[in-house]
Description:
CATH class of the largest domain: Alpha Beta
Radius of gyration: 20 Å
Helix content: 25-40%
Bound molecules: nicotinamide-adenine-dinucleotide, zinc ion
CATH architecture of the largest domain: Alpha-Beta Complex
Strand content: 25-35%
CATH superfamily of the largest domain: Medium-chain alcohol dehydrogenases, catalytic domain
Shape: globular
Oligomer: single chain
Mean pLDDT: 97
Order of helices and strands: EEEHEEEHEEEEHHEHEHEHEHEHEHEHE
Amino acid sequence: MSHEVNAVIARAKGQPVELTSVLVPDPGPGEALVRVQACGVCHTDLHYREGGINDEFPFLLGHEAAGVVEDVGADVAGLAPGDFVILNWRAVCGDCRACRRGEPWYCFATHNASQKMTLADGTVLSAALGIGAFAERTLVAAGQCTKVDPAVAPEVAGLLGCGVMAGLGAALNTAAVRRGETVAVIGCGGVGDAAILGASFAGARTVIAVDVDDRKLDLAKQFGATHTVNSREVDAVEAIKDLTDGLGADVVIEAVGRPETYRQAFYARDLAGRVVLVGVPTPDMTIELPLIDVFGRGGVLKSSWYGDCLPSRDFPMLVDLHLQGRLPLDKFVSETIGLGDVEAAFDKMHRGEVLRSVVVL
Ligand SMILES: NC(=O)c1ccc[n+]([C@@H]2O[C@H](COP(=O)([O-])OP(=O)(O)OC[C@H]3O[C@@H](n4cnc5c(N)ncnc54)[C@H](O)[C@@H]3O)[C@@H](O)[C@H]2O)c1
Ligand SMILES: [Zn+2]
Ligand SMILES: [Zn+2]
């Protein structure tokens, strides 16, 4: 049997998204059917719509979600109807070469549902990041459901499913910011502000927010930025050096995904500093750097996939910290919207008006 539900799809490259009805199969072995309660609008959804991720249209968009398990496949253990869960895109396999060497946050064979969701005419949908949660119900691998304290608001919890986790994890896991370090974050959207919050939480003494939009810089202060730099007005690299005794930051986190901002990150760090790329570039982007600078400046150049998180380790902990009042995750929710408002939310994201619009169902 399958369920007919309302959902938001991107039918073709660059076309506005559409609210339409899709078919969601009952869960088979290893799968779970989830009633989505909230799903944030992430810049990666827009990348999908623009054809920046791959060409497997049509996409069922949405991947920052929380909801309630409605049904599970016959062989599923540890998950039951009624459980409140955050959906993750890292259901680790336990068996690939990354998992076997004890680095499951790099898992190269993460689980997704085996059955496909489709349009009414049978056209197979590609679920964004194997989730597809701008939908009243979605089908995922059981391992993509991470149980957390149901006391948290779904619109806040869902954000941990992608952007907020990616930013927090870029600071806490990938960069492993230490107490007293200096950190700069380039790009202060939902992801960048989460990196600022993570750096602040880790005890960084200086947290420099860099953006081209003053409204974003004002918001960044609420997440712990100690200084702000508008890189449309001043040179970002020089400004970051000025704020770090002329040295550059110990850690620079790039949360835009463009060559020019990566170059700023590369040159704005101190010798032997760490650069973390969490912004997602498009396949056509390239960067040229003097190899002597790569060598001579030393340190670490890393990418952060999903904040190097382990959902089962990190989501319940971060929800608990939030419920204790120690991690203001609710500040990422700029507005709650309906399923029909996703295209308008992309426009607001483009105009820099929101950190996160969250679809509430
Ligand atoms: N690595 C991951 O696992 C992961 C997860 C989620 C999102 N992302 C990526 O992170 C990036 C940010 O996502 P988001 O949802 O926060 O997007 P967003 O659109 O909300 O924020 C981007 C921010 O960058 C700023 N910006 C744009 N150009 C700039 C420039 N030249 N210099 C400085 N700032 C600039 C914008 O003003 C905006 O505040 C995207 O590329 C997204 O795909 C990565
Ligand atoms: Zn694995
Ligand atoms: Zn995302």
